[in-house]
Structure prediction request, 335 residues.
Amino acid sequence: MNLFYRSILLILIFQLPIFGESFSLISDIGSSAQAIALGNIEGQSRTASAIFSNPAGLYLIRSYSFSLFQTTVMNDINYLNFALSKKTPLGTIGFGHYMASINDIAHTMIDEATQEFTIKENFNYKNSVTKLSYQRSIFRRLKLGLNLSKYNVDFHTLKANGFGVDLGALYILPFATFSAYAQNINQGEIIYKDSNNPDYEGKETLPLSISTSMRLQLWDFIFFPQVKFMNGSMLPSAGVQYAPRFIPYLKFNMGYRQLLDYANQVHNKASVGMDLKLLSITAHYAYERSEYHLQDHMSYFSLSYNFKLKDPKIANRFQLSSILLFLPSIYLMTL
Prediction:
């Protein structure tokens, strides 16, 4: 990417979050390719990626579930998330990590001799969130989920972190599933520190995001309407999935969504995609047009894997995997 477009990118990603009042959530791009293809519907995932869109959806995990999602936006911003969840007698537990990064960003300065821009050094940008999840069935039809989120930002001389709390619920009927998901209900603060200036302290508030959606199945079609409220805007979305009975391993998705950019401007996007299931592994693909003219065709890929393992117990009580599951999440939380 040339210097002009990289400069625009830096203004959008760095300047607005540092001096703005509301923190930008990287997970708004979507939790998986399937979610993006369906219009970024929240609360209807059936894999470990539900950690990022409504942890109450983890009730569908029968044993273990793993999900992986990766994409590159504007040829420079790398998005990556992974999630792992496990069913236990006391509920479903899990953790997920979502990261956006840019490498080799040029820190420029004016050469006093030539009065031209020159590169002083290169640095990286990293914005991440780690979520610890717990889901439990309250009644047969009512499922609740809770997330504890740790946010981290690291670029050049600035570092920031903060905590958020998410709460989700699903209510299940024979003909439909209703979802409600509130992200950052504590509206915690992201605190910035500058290693070159011990007196500097910047603050941003984690935005409260509330979404309600429904899953309605009619014959071979599943409809997903949604309304999301964030930063004073109402953002409708809708998705349709076609699962032909004569091809049980293939599903086709399409969606529409409204979303906010870094300047809180509303944008409209349409998307299409498909899911291909092979044994216990499902591959997801999504396509949408981009407003960035140098990369106006965007493709997204993700994988989900549901599996079982022999799970030895410690002292005839605690399953070994339940303990091992939290070791990487505890490490990510301490970063």
